[in-house]
Structures are given as structure tokens and as C-alpha cells.
Specification:
Helices cover 33% and strands 16% of the residues. By secondary structure, the protein is α+β, with helices and mostly antiparallel strands.
Length: 326
């Protein structure tokens, strides 16, 4: 039996029960006042009649808080809030995006879910927002571990004209901790010492061993760590013969998946959204099958990150583009 045949992918009541079991594992929380397990279910409530649904639509998973007397569902305060898309279709979208190694395009999502393209595009971005890591992050290389660092270039910087080299392209700095197998990517405006130094110091332990290519921008930042080893790609050196552990092949492998996804699946990305695409590829890499995490578990973990990361379609200043309400 296919995992996509599970009830919560097709039945709205089952979808609400599934999300509730994940987000309210420690008790049902009122998003208005924070009260735990002091609410009751409202049965038989329907939405207002409309031309499309003259009798209204049954409201699944509706509760009323006994303290503040306000109504809520598990959608409140999450990326699902105020979405007209049925929750079971949201769960299908989360699974498809989490289980596709190189991504799942909005055009393909709109065909599979049978929704408008703009709906599919927006929900994909909201799911990527749920994949983003928030709060205090663990530093890489704790205990003297090895951390590979490299930069990559993709697309074109806004307002730039095509030129020789990579100056006109968007720039991404990525780190991979060999011990934990975790990756972290940051979109940067420039690849220079003033930009890279604070990023490395904030994300890598001082006792770590830094592994990079021969680029000069890493020389001075490398002095801040216990050891800094390089390989010279210009001289066709990809693994130091005297020490087979000195290489940047791990992060190059990460970039290969990222590039294949961005060029082969998404094809185009503007800089204002690039950080979410990086969060998507980081998320799948950090929870990949090689680490013992399968597709279903990866989708469940993504659902745990939907709280407090709601995206709105219009910014607070009224201009077009995404706004956030946390």
C-alpha cells in the first residue's frame, strides 16, 4: 500500500486529527491565551453559506477555549492559517516537497493537487518557511570536528548585467559539519573577508578544523580556528594525498544536488526568495535517508515547524511581496 493512500491525505477530519497529534502532542493549546487542555470541541458547526456552497462547509477540528472563550483550530498561528486549501491537500504538498530529493516545482504541484498555479506557488513557499531553522543554532565542529566551507554561484543578481566571472551571480555560502552530517547555507551579497569572517565565527566552533579550497578569502578567517587545511582545485588537487580526510568533496556533493534541483526543477529563483530555497535543500539534506530518516518522518518533522512561521502575501508596508507574522 502506498503511503499516499493513508486517510489523512484524503479525508479532512483525519487530516486535522493527524496534525493535532503532532502539534498538540503535549496537550491542546489555545493559541489566543496559551491555556493547555482547557477547551472543548464544537460539533456540527458550518461555515457561512456561499454561492459555491449554499449549505456551508463543515468546520473540522473546531474548539472553544473555556478560559478566553475564543474559538480556534490547529491551523491558527501556523502556515495553514486563513488558507482556503483543504488541510489534507496541504499534507500532500508537505509530503511531496519533503520526499523529492531535488525539489518539486509549483507547476507540478498545481497539476498534482489540481489547484491554481498561484496557490501552489504560495503554499510551496510557506512550506519552505516551515523548513527554515529558527532561534539559536548549534555551532558546527564542536569538540574539534571538521567543517567544510565553500561558496557557490547561481542565477543573476538583481539589476546586474552578464559579465565574465561570477560577479553578476547570486552568492551562497554553505557549511557542512562532517561529524553530524548537517549543512547550513547563507545567502550573501559578497564573497569577501568582511562578509565571511562573522558568518564563520558565528556558526563554527573555535576548536573546529576548517576545510576549504584555495580561495584567499578563507585565509584570514581560517586563523580563528584550531586548524585550517586547504586543497588546491586549480592544480587538480581534490584530496590531499598525505591525508585523505582533507577535501571538500562532501560540500561539493551537497552543491551538486542543489544545482540540479535549481536548474532542472525550479529553473529560476529571485534573490528575495533564495533563502527559502536554500532552507528547503538544507532541510532535506539534514534529514536525509543516509541519516536514517525516511520520507514520512521527514514530512512529520516539517509539520512540527509550521507554528509561528506564517507567511502573508502582502508586506506590512503595503508593497508587494511576502510579509511574515510570527
Amino acid at each position: 500500500m502506498s503511503i499516499l493512500s493513508k486517510p489523512y491525505f484524503h479525508d479532512e477530519a483525519s487530516a486535522f486529527a493527524h496534525v493535532e497529534s503532532i502539534l498538540w502532542a503535549q496537550g491542546r493549546v489555545c493559541p489566543h491565551c496559551g491555556t493547555v487542555d482547557n477547551s472543548y470541541a464544537l460539533k456540527g458547526v458550518r461555515s457561512k453559506p456561499s454561492q459555491k456552497n449554499p449549505e456551508g462547509v463543515e468546520r473540522h477540528g473546531l474548539y472553544k477555549c473555556s478560559d478566553c472563550r475564543k474559538q480556534f483550530t490547529v491551523r491558527k498561528g501556523t502556515i495553514f492559517e486563513e488558507s482556503h486549501l483543504p488541510l489534507h491537500k496541504w499534507l500532500q504538498a508537505v509530503y511531496l516537497l519533503c520526499s523529492s530529493k531535488k525539489g518539486f516545482s509549483a507547476h507540478q504541484m498545481h497539476r498534482v493537487l489540481e489547484v491554481q498555479y498561484k496557490t501552489a506557488w504560495f503554499l510551496c513557499h510557506r512550506i519552505r518557511e516551515a523548513m527554515r531553522s529558527g532561534g539559536d543554532l548549534d555551532v558546527f565542529g564542536a569538540g574539534g570536528g571538521s567543517v567544510e566551507v565553500d561558496e557557490t554561484y547561481i542565477g543573476r543578481e538583481p539589476g546586474s548585467t552578464k559579465q565574465r566571472g561570477s560577479g553578476h551571480k547570486m552568492k551562497v555560502l554553505s557549511l557542512v559539519d562532517r561529524n553530524t552530517g548537517q549543512a547550513r547555507s547563507i545567502v550573501v551579497d559578497r564573497v569577501d573577508k568582511p562578509t565571511i569572517m562573522p558568518i564563520l565565527q558565528a556558526n563554527i566552533s573555535k576548536e573546529a578544523r576548517l576545510l576549504t579550497d584555495e580561495a584567499g578569502v578563507y585565509r584570514k578567517p581560517g586563523l580563528k580556528f584550531s586548524d585550517h587545511q586547504t586543497v588546491n582545485h586549480k592544480a587538480n588537487e581534490y584530496v590531499r594525498l598525505t591525508d585523505r580526510e582533507i577535501h571538500t568533496n562532501t560540500i561539493e556533493g551537497y552543491f551538486s544536488v542543489f544545482k540540479r534541483g535549481m536548474k532542472g526543477v525550479y529553473q529560476h529563483c529571485s534573490k528575495k526568495h533564495l533563502h527559502r530555497y536554500m532552507a528547503e535543500f538544507d532541510y532535506r539534506y539534514n534529514k536525509r535517508s543516509a541519516l536514517g530518516i525516511e520520507d514520512g518522518e521527514r514530512a512529520t518533522e516539517a509539520l512540527r515547524g509550521v507554528v509561528g512561521k506564517r507567511l502573508t502575501y502582502r508586506r506590512a508596508d503595503g508593497k508587494s511581496g511576502f510579509g511574515t507574522t510570527a
